Amino acid sequence: MSALAFALVFAAALAHAAWNVIAHGVSKAGAPFLWWGAVGGTVVWIGAIPFTGGLGTDDLGAFVLGVGVSAVLHVVYMAVLQRGYREGNLSTVYATARGTGPFLSVIVAVLLLGERPTPIALVGVAAVIAGVVAIGLVDRGRGSSRRGMDPGLLFGLLTGVAIAVYTIWDANAVRTWSLSPVAFMVGTMVLEVPFYSLTVGRRWKAVWALWRTQWRRIAAFSVLSPLSYILVLTAIQIAPVALVAPLREVSVVLVSLFGVFVLRESRPAWRLGASVVVAGGILLLAL
Description:
The chain is mainly alpha-helical. Helix content is 77%, strand content 0%. It has helices spanning 3-22, 31-45, 60-87, 90-111, 119-136, 151-176, 181-200, 204-236, 241-247, 250-261, 268-286.
């Protein structure tokens, strides 16, 4: 992976980790928070489009198709993820999704996009995915008495599939049609607003109440969340998806380290050990 692509993805991971730390707790508000995220992100970033290459293409139809499909895929991803959090253990869903998503992205990128990562890079990919899953499994459902398939695993797998699908679609769209990452991100968020408005339903009082009490966190999310994915989309234009997709999960490690050193979360040795595994994978990807 080139130094520029590595720097872009690592910066994306920092931005992603930052908004997760800042928005810790408020994101549990569900649909009202997602609605504000789409609206806030659009307001913050739409003004940057003229200064970042416009749409990136004169083919308006290609742009609309690209962002339209992406919006649907991202909404489906959020719906499956939220359902998983309701039905299963949070850490199980998170770990399974964050491991499955990059893993499937790598396979599809190799089979369909014709990418050919080096053997060393593939070892790095495996290390990153294994470390991310290990971090997510730290608090996995101890004491659960459920029989049969854990719903957390089922919805985690489905979420991972959704991550892989939107990653591959977005990568192919921005590459094939030379779409501007900023315009692509804004277009996707604009089309997400109607979906989230339907999800909010009659709970508009909760939407305004959330803004009054959490506007600072919503503002931070509106800047950092789109920024993290804009950086990923930019990196995808110059680096293989098979390397970018796993490396962006470094954000999970950064949030875990925050939990160890700031929040004093349980089993720090396990979290730190898994982080070391991921760090080793990152070094291999940087070669």
